[in-house]
Amino acid sequence: EVQLVESGGGLVQPGGSLRLSCAASGFTFSSYSMNWVRQAPGKGLEWVSYISSSSSTIYYADSVKGRFTISRDNAKNSLYLQMNSLRAEDTAVYYCARVPVAGTSWFDPWGQGTLVTVSS
Amino acid sequence: QAGLTQPPSVSKGLRQTATLTCTGNSNNVGNQGAAWLQQHQGHPPKLLSYRNNNRPSGISERLSASRSGNTASLTITGLQPEDEADYYCSAWDSSLSALVFGGGTKLTVL
């Protein structure tokens, strides 16, 4: 079964840092591009970042550029999101999601998400 | 980054047909088409349709998607109580090098 499990969320003060992880199983992780998407409480979906299978191509949303860093370890079947200089508006459930077909932009499956709360 | 435009809410009766719309521009929906996602309260999104009208395995045949110009549509026939959920469209924007989502449509089945 294809599965994505996020971890690393929690409560952090404004200006602080947090590192999210996404553990992949049930498929050849190194062959797939991955994304992070977030959803603020009661709000819609917001794309955060994309990383290609080999890490050669990376994109960020303007709202996180310069503060967040996406990375992956194909040997560990894991995706990461390093979040620095966190703001209240970064409070959200963060999902990792796979790109099932190379060169496309739809995501399947999605993980269950991990909640990040930025508050003093 | 500008997103796609979806109506905030749609209400239809049981066993009726609902059509949800998603409007973008030539750099996103008009270029590569849209994907549709369903999200029930408290659950992660689930892919319903991609590249305009392709359904992943296990997705009901009551769902169909299409595109006309810069507008994508998702049609759900024979509405059931379990169809009540939030629906999002998404597309890659080639001018922004970013994925954009619609604001979501809350579908209520009366």
Please provide a written account of the structure.
- The complex is a heterodimer of chains A (120) and B (110).
- By secondary structure, chain A is mostly beta strands.
- Chain A has strands spanning 3-7, 10-12, 18-25, 34-39, 45-51, 58-60, 68-73, 78-83, 92-98, 114-118.
- Chain A has no helices and 10 strands.
- The termini of chain A are far apart.
- By secondary structure, chain B is mainly β.
- The longest helix of chain B has 4 residues, at 29-32.
- The relative contact order of chain B is 0.35.
- Chain B has one helix at residues 29-32; strands at 9-12, 18-23, 35-39, 46-49, 63-68, 71-76, 85-93, 98-101, 105-109.
- In chain B, β3 and β4 (46-49) form a beta hairpin.
Can I get a quick summary?
The complex is a heterodimer of chains A (120) and B (110). Chain A is an all-beta fold and 120 residues long. Chain A has strands at residues 3-7, 10-12, 18-25, 34-39, 45-51, 58-60, 68-73, 78-83, 92-98, 114-118.
Structural class of chain B: mainly beta
Specify the helix fraction band of chain B. under 10%
In angstroms, what separates the terminal alpha carbons of chain B?
Answer: 35 Å
Estimated share of beta-strand residues of chain B:
35-45%
**Element pattern of chain B in H and E:** EEHEEEEEEE
Give the integer mean of the pLDDT values of chain A: 96
Which two chains have the most extensive interface, and how many residues on each?
A: A-B, 22 and 25 residues
Order of helices and strands of chain A: EEEEEEEEEE
Gross morphology of chain A: globular
The helix tally of chain A amounts to: 0
The percent range for strand residues of chain A is: over 45%
